[in-house]
């Protein structure tokens, strides 16, 4: 059963920058350069300049469409979308209108909601407007950057669902390798309406990231509930956390679409479609489902680990050298936490399949405690060390000798009579306190389970 109401209706239009080296219709480089230096007569629309389609962009766009379950069109047709704005040097944008590259796909949310993918098509990006204190500048370097636009049906009914959709989409893009999260841009335009305002549709433009989509929609829904609503386009100001009026909402007819006269209509062969389909890797959700089925890993752990392609690849390698269920717990609890706290990408660390497997197996076989293992994971973030050698050199082997641990327990009971008294009164936290004292004395090397059992016997 879905826990939402159709009183709110949300559809998204997402623009993904494809990770090509050159523009969609010209040879200008995509990587950042000095303003207005990565331009040419084609992307600036000079008279007589003829566009050429970037084959790699076409391949990447088809990958995205197929991964979202879309049907690929039999032909590729480009159109001119005419509008006048300072960042559009030629006063039209080459896009797809009549027949998108892909249509009729879908993406399923965790609550079972099916979000329809109405179309996935290619288009070029306009330039960038840079607003300064006393002036507005235009950088045309982005003109012609290849974008894949993904348009959903109005099938989401909460900001949380929109955020989940964006997160799932970014996960798919990461697995496909068609988008560079370090230099690429993903922007969403959200169409949102509410029942009490007769579902009058408002478009909120230029929302970046899955966290921002939730913030922007939360604000806009509350704004619509408290104000008069009209058909309009608004912008999202992430710093102020508000939407603001931009212009009255255009209709498709306002853009005066015509078929692009300088590009032919391309036929797409079934062999080409099959080759693109064959190049799509196992995606994150499929991978997580396989781990749950084959390795009996916790479903939540599997989904979280599979969210990042590099992490998922490393997890599979380590899981083949140890017990997959135990490895999944280490990845979820320690490795992902360490990446998050250090704000590093996996490739920036010293983690590899050998040192992680050695650490996990060391703890699993009793050679080191859980606490020591966690400390080693922290060290491995920036140092390539041998976990086994480190434990021996630092004297951090696990202490499991009952006689040695019993002496430490007796000492601790004498040192902390109040905690002993509280435990005998039924306060379980006092036992954890006493165990913690032993772990502190032994620098985390004592077998915590044995220490707990010894205390329980001594304090009967």
Question: What strand line-up does the widest sheet have?
Answer: 2-6-7-10-1-11-12-13-14
State the assembly state of the protein chains: single chain
Proportion of β residues?
15-25%
Radius of gyration: 29 Å
- Strand count, sense and closure of the main sheet? 9 strands, mixed
| Individual helix count | 15
Q: Total strand count, please?
A: 16
How many domains? 3
Overall spatial form = elongated
**Poorly predicted spans:** none
Instruction: Report helical residue fraction.
Output: 40-55%
| Average of pLDDT | 92
Structural class: alpha+beta
Distance between the termini: 50 Å
Question: What is shown here, in short?
Answer:
The protein is an alpha+beta fold and 460 residues long. It folds into 3 domains: 8-277, no CATH class; 282-387, no CATH class; 402-458, Arc Repressor Mutant, subunit A.
Topology (elements, then pairings):
Blueprint: E1 8-17, H1 55-67, E2 71-72, E3 75-76, E4 79-82, E5 92-95, E6 102-108, E7 114-124, E8 128-131, E9 136-139, E10 146-152, H2 159-176, E11 186-194, E12 202-208, H3 210-226, E13 232-237, E14 242-248, E15 258-259, E16 266-267, H4 270-279, H5 284-295, H6 299-306, H7 309-319, H8 324-342, H9 353-364, H10 370-380, H11 387-393, H12 402-415, H13 417-424, H14 428-441, H15 448-458
Parallel strand pairs: 12-13
Antiparallel strand pairs: 1-10, 1-11, 2-6, 3-16, 4-5, 4-15, 6-7, 7-10, 8-9, 11-12, 13-14
Helix pairs in contact: 1-4, 2-3, 5-6, 6-8, 7-8, 7-9, 9-10, 12-14, 12-15, 13-14, 14-15
């Amino acid at each position: 059963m879905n826990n939402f109401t159709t009183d709110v209706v949300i559809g998204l239009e997402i623009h993904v920058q494809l990770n090509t080296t050159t523009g969609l219709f010209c040879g200008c480089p995509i990587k950042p350069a000095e303003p207005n230096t990565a331009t040419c007569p084609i992307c600036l629309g000079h008279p007589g300049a003829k566009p050429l389609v970037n084959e790699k962009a076409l391949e990447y766009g088809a990958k995205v469409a197929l991964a979202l379950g879309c049907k690929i069109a039999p032909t590729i047709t480009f159109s001119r979308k005419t509008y006048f704005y300072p960042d559009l040097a030629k006063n039209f944008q080459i896009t797809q209108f009549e027949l998108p590259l892909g249509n009729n796909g879908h993406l399923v949310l965790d609550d079972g909601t099916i979000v329809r993918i109405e179309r996935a098509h290619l288009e070029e990006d306009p330039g960038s407007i840079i607003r300064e204190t006393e002036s507005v500048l235009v950088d045309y370097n982005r003109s012609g950057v290849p974008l894949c636009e993904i348009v959903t049906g109005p099938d989401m009914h909460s900001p949380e669902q929109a955020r989940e959709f964006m997160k799932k989409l970014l996960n798919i893009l990461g697995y496909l390798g068609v988008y560079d999260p370090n230099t690429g841009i993903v922007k969403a335009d959200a169409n949102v309406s509410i029942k009490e305002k007769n579902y009058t549709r408002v478009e909120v433009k230029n929302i970046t990231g899955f966290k921002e989509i939730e913030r922007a929609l939360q604000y806009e829904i509350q704004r619509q509930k408290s104000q008069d609503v009209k058909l309009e386009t608004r912008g999202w100001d992430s710093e102020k956390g508000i939407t603001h009026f931009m212009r009255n909402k255009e209709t498709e007819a306002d853009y005066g679409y015509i078929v692009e006269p300088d590009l032919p209509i391309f036929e797409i062969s079934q062999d080409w479609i099959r080759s693109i389909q064959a190049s799509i890797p196992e995606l994150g959700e499929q991978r997580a489902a396989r781990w749950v089925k084959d390795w009996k890993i916790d479903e939540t752990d599997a989904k979280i680990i599979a969210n990042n392609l590099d992490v998922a690849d490393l997890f599979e390698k380590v899981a083949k050298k140890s017990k997959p269920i135990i490895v999944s717990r280490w990845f979820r609890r320690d490795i992902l936490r360490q990446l998050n706290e250090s704000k590093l990408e996996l490739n920036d660390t010293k983690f590899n399949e050998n040192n992680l497997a050695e650490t996990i197996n060391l703890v699993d076989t009793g050679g080191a405690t859980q606490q020591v293992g966690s400390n080693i994971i922290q060290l491995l973030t920036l140092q390539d060390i041998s976990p086994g050698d480190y434990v021996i050199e630092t004297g951090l082997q696990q202490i499991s000798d009952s006689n040695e641990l019993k002496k430490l327990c007796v000492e601790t009971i004498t040192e902390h009579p109040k905690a002993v008294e509280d435990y005998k009164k039924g306060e379980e936290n006092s036992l954890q306190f006493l165990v913690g004292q032993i772990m502190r004395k032994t620098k985390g090397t004592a077998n915590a389970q044995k220490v707990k059992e010894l205390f329980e016997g001594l304090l009967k």
